[in-house]
Amino acid sequence: MVNTGMSKRSVIVTNASSPIGSACARRFVAEGDRLVLVDRNEAVGRAVANEFIEQGKDVVFIAADCAQKLDVHNILAEAIENNSTIDVFIHNQITFSDKSFADLTGEDLDSIYQADLHSAFLMGQAVMKHMVRADALETPGTSPENSNKTRSIVMLYASNASLIGDATFAATQGAIGGLIGALATAGSRHNVRANGICVGAVKGAFATEEELENISKTSLLGGQGDPIDVAELAYFLSSPFSSYITGKTIELDGGGLLKPGNDKYGDPS
After folding, report:
1. Per-residue pLDDT tens for 174-206?
2. Which residue among 65, 113, 138, 230 is least packed, with the fewest CB closer than 10 Å?
3. Kind and range of the H or E element at 88?
4. DSSP codes, 191-228
5. Per-residue pLDDT tens for 200-227?
6. Distance of CA 92 to the CA centre of its chain
7. pTM exceeding the 0.85 threshold for the entire prediction
8. Where are the alpha helices (DSSP H) in the chain?
9. Phi and psi at residue 69, in whole multiples of 5°?
């Protein structure tokens, strides 16, 4: 674990009931951060939050759909009411279709865009507006408690989504990559950073077990990553240790875009 010594931060994590979402929540809770967990599935999401609450952690849950403007408003209101501000936003909403390319319809594309890109845009825009306003209200050097804080947006997506053969998924994930650059530009003069994590073959990620197995065969390291790997990287990207990183996507895929078997030195055995 990276221990930054930072004071408690206000953190929003979406899709918190997923393996990656809950791993991210655990990582930030371990540092004493105050969390607002968001999930469309109220029963499962609340169960994850209650696990932390029973441990005495500062966690609240809200059932919401990040692709709905009113729900986005309610998520931010919940975070501000409970924690006064928002320091970190981890967006982890990834949806894909199981249809073949030939069977896809325009309605399928609209549905995936609504779930993935629309939610990323609405949440990213709303959080960025809040962070920019918060930065404008702060006077440098007058708040020692906040002097070691950093505001950060981290979006999890899959820029190599075409590997599983889902055209709608590949299109929406590519668009989210562009959105990260736009967010980074918007926040650059207001002490707000935005970065992405391209999630490859990670257990419990966006694809089926068979699809993850196929993707893992294209990676140099083989096998599958763990949700904890994603959580650690998300925490790093929200910490002062990454203060000069913005507008970037880090691929967490075991070297997935590099072709295995090209080691010119051969087998050391």
Report:
1. 889 899 999 999 999 999 999 999 888 788 766
2. 138
3. strand 88-91
4. TEEEEEEEE-SBTTSSS-HHHHHHHHTTSSS-S-B-HH
5. 878 876 666 676 677 677 778 877 889 9
6. 4
7. yes
8. 19-30, 42-53, 69-83, 106-112, 119-137, 167-187, 209-216, 227-237
9. -60, -40
